[in-house]
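Pasting as-is:
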Amino acid sequence: MPDRKTLIDRVILLSWFTIAYNLLEGLVSLYFGLTEGSIALAGFGADSFIEVFSAALVLWRFRSETAGACVSVERERRATLGIGALFVVLAAATAAGAVLQLRDGGHPATSVPGLAISAASLGFMFFLWRAKSRLAAALDSATVLKDAACSLACIKLSAVLFLGSLLFLASPALWWADGAAAAALALLIGFEGVETIRAALRPDFAGGCGCA
């Protein structure tokens, strides 16, 4: 088993990797989501920026430890609460967009960008989820575990976006597919946010650093 410093170095490297990929994915998704009129793709892009913030929280937590500071359980709790709050805000915004799109009968001009982006994300996020889950167990860190949960949520969101995009591509008459996919994304994101906040607020939230 690698020592704690080696494990933390791996977490920090994965966090930087997550930030770089999701910044690119988020910008591309938002661009095509807005220009092509896809609420699902735009919501997916916004979720990518939550991945960025989640990874940034992990960096904040572990770089403090590598600098010699003992990171308290309360520091991990605040980081976990921050991730959960971002999920809830995004869920509300995505749900509102989905309702408006379905009400107005709107649909994207094409679903090809959604298919390409979601397919790439499925493979990349699966790798990140597995790696972060192993490191969370090795470090006994609630923050890394919830960051891994962000990646798992992104896998689910990618699958929903892929299915919605595929349906619309197969039959443009299914104009509601993008709005329905956006609504499903909102539900998944909201559930993850609520569960994250509930975990952080539990009296027995232990974090993993072991510091007082």
